[in-house]
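Many introductory courses stop at the sequence. We go one step further.
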Amino acid sequence: MPETGNNKTKQTNNTLSIRSKPDGFVFYALHQQTQAYFELVLEKEADLREVFTPFVQEKGWWQQPDWEVVIYEDSPRYTLLPVDIQSPSNQQAFFNMLFAPDPNRTLHSFILSDGIQRICTDPFSERIRLFEEAFSHFTLHSAQQQALEWLLHQAKTQNKTHLLAEIQGQNLFLSVANEERWLLTNAFNVENEAEMHYFILRCMEQLDLDPFETRCLLRTEKNRFERLRSTLGLFIQHIVQVELAMPDNRLRIL
């Protein structure tokens, strides 16, 4: 189980950054100083191979050694564990307490900046196999780790508790941090916006967050953001929209 999740990398002038999310992929390509942005949506995970493979081949990225490929995996199956739990079998045991056991599961472990916790993620195994087929070398990162580190930085910078809600397909990624540490991180399956309201407000209630001081950050498309802000604004004073900035796959406040 790699600590960094990294495979072999190679320094080139061609860079392909991929955000692998539950409902598809976002691609950002930099080739000879020319930039290109693509989005590939999956109607269902079963379509992965027949959609992803011809797309990557058509773009000329398939098994090209002169491309540096960086992949940010956005899996809803993840948890935080103490950094002292180093044994892969022990990490697997804790993970199986939260998620259905899977004998084919391969966890990826990333140590967080506080030095006392690690995030263990379970990327979609079929996607990892497909990445290995498609690219001669790539680097794998945890999108959840990146979001958590960014959130904690915002909380420290503003000296204010921040709640981050990222909505992707039917997945709601919910994390909270104050100026000292992370308070919560979890992923929920949601069927509609009413369930999004419920989990966000329930999180506020359970953590006893001040609705007049807590900053609520929402990452979703603009129309949904406006609807959510209209409803959540009855209970939370500070609500702002964030987006994913390419090519470095980092969040930023709009």
